[in-house]
Amino acid sequence: MNFKIASTYGALALAALSVLTSCKKEFDADNYVAYFGGEVENPQSRYVLFCQNNVVLDTLPLKADNTFFVKFDSLAPGLYTFKHEPEYQYVYFDKNDSIRVHIDSKDFDQSIIFCGRGDQKNNFLMEMYLRNEKEKNKIFDILDYEAPKFLSYINKVNADNIAFYKSKKEEIKWNDEFDVYAQGMYLFPHYTRKEIYPIVHKMRTGNDVSKALPKDYYDFRKTIDFSDEKMTDFSPFVMYLNYMLNNVGSIHYHNHFSEVDLALKTNVNKLKIADTLIKNEKVKNIVVNSIAFQYLLEDQNMVNNQEFLKHYYKIATDKSKKNEILKLGKAINQLTDGKKLPSVTLLDAAGKNVNSSSLITKNTILFFWSEELNSHLVAAHKKALELQKKYPNYEFIAINLDKNPNTWKEALTKYSFGPIRQYHCSNFEEIKNKWAITKVHRTMIINKDLTIKNGFTNMFDIRFEEDLQ
């Protein structure tokens, strides 16, 4: 902890103590009064949103000194989120908690420190979140491991997390309601790694490791309540559920169907499983929307897309997300092979806006990266440099998707990207709507006449080079 953060923490602690002292009578009463406040360094806007289940409960304006504060006359114990766009994090309130938080928007997650009544539980959640993020950055490499080595690695990580959880539980002595989330912070990321492994390992290496897995590999699924309403807005659970359905929904029809038709049947099956398995409507909507986003980005058969959407619309009840899916479908329709690539505005290293169409004068490979996903950043550029030597008739252009252009500029000075041309996405909504970009793991192959050769591929797919011949 550096001096600046320590000083800020001390100031926040004194402020929290003042609130606790002045409000002791209210805490002694039989009510649910609670307090939430803090300070935002380098604010990106003049407010903080206080939310639960993706619903904004209160908008907290920043004062001239970039602090905010609110008293809740009645706040039910539970998990909430606070958002300072575009970032968010969790905060858990017990009865009568008084919590203050320090935030620096330039390093949002790393900067967060809680103090006041209820701070220890929330600092534990942040520590677990950062431990999981550290492992998430490593997952790109360990998915190539053979089964015994992979299991040894993730079991060691899980054992360390369990030991950390137990020590903090003994120290803080939190209640059973909070314990649901405390356990979820290490359990669901561990389960997610297990669900991801066989799918991604096969995609990247061509080897099916399913037969090499222990017989009890998936037994943990029996212990999960997939309709637990408390998990509706808990991203570790929602993320796990999404990957689990990828596994359970996979169907093997051998040679009876083409790859495209097999993808349709698999994803319709996933929708049906989610509809049957998940009784909670909010959780169900989150999951089926995720299935729809993934399927539409991976299968560009227009006839099959319409068939899939028929099933999706029967199950989904979230109107706003239905509209997003509709927009995505329209964008994908413009990115089919042979069509001209729609132009978007990008930012060059000199800080000038450039039209994407003006950058493509020869056969070009576009790929995407974010400084937040460090392992992918390094692996993607390494792969691009290898391919550029092998296919000199192709130009390689990397597009950074970080929200802050300063983060991109810092990365340009930190890494050596060689001859790969670098640009920044200055308007993510535009690139999402025109190029259907929702994640960094995407590659586009564009002909020199700006027509699309393959708009939905991945440099790490074992069949990627077939399109470059």
- Mind describing the biggest β-sheet? 7 strands, mixed
Low-confidence stretches: 1-27
Q: Structural class given helices, strands, pairing?
A: alpha+beta
Overall mean confidence score, pLDDT: 86
**How do the strands line up in the largest sheet?**
10-9-13-12-11-14-15
β-sheet strand percentage: 15-25%
Number of helices: 15
How many runs of DSSP E, i.e. beta strands?
A: 15
Give the overall form: globular
Q: What portion of residues is helical?
A: 40-55%
First-residue to last-residue Cα separation:
52 Å
Number of domains: 4
Order of helices and strands: HHEEEEEEEHEHHHHHHHHEEHEHEHEHEE
Gyration radius (Cα, Å) is: 24 Å
Descriptive report:
With 469 residues, this protein is an alpha+beta fold. The chain folds into four domains: 3-117, Immunoglobulin-like; 120-248; 249-333, no CATH class; 345-468, 3-Layer(aba) Sandwich (Glutaredoxin), CATH 3.40.30. It is built from 15 helices and 15 strands. It has helices at 3-22, 24-28, 108-111, 119-142, 147-172, 176-205, 235-248, 259-277, 281-298, 302-315, 319-333, 356-359, 374-390, 405-414, 428-435, and strands at 34-41, 47-52, 55-61, 67-72, 78-84, 87-93, 98-104, 113-117, 345-347, 353-355, 364-369, 395-400, 421-425, 443-446, 452-457. The strands form three sheets. It has a seven-stranded mixed β-sheet, with helices on both faces. A four-stranded mixed β-sheet has the order 4-1-7-8. α13 (374-390) links the parallel β11 (364-369) and β12 (395-400). α4 runs parallel beside α6, α5 (147-172) packs antiparallel against α6 (176-205) and α6 crosses α7. The longest helix is centred in the middle third of the chain and has 30 residues, at 176-205. The model is unreliable at 1-27 (pLDDT under 50).
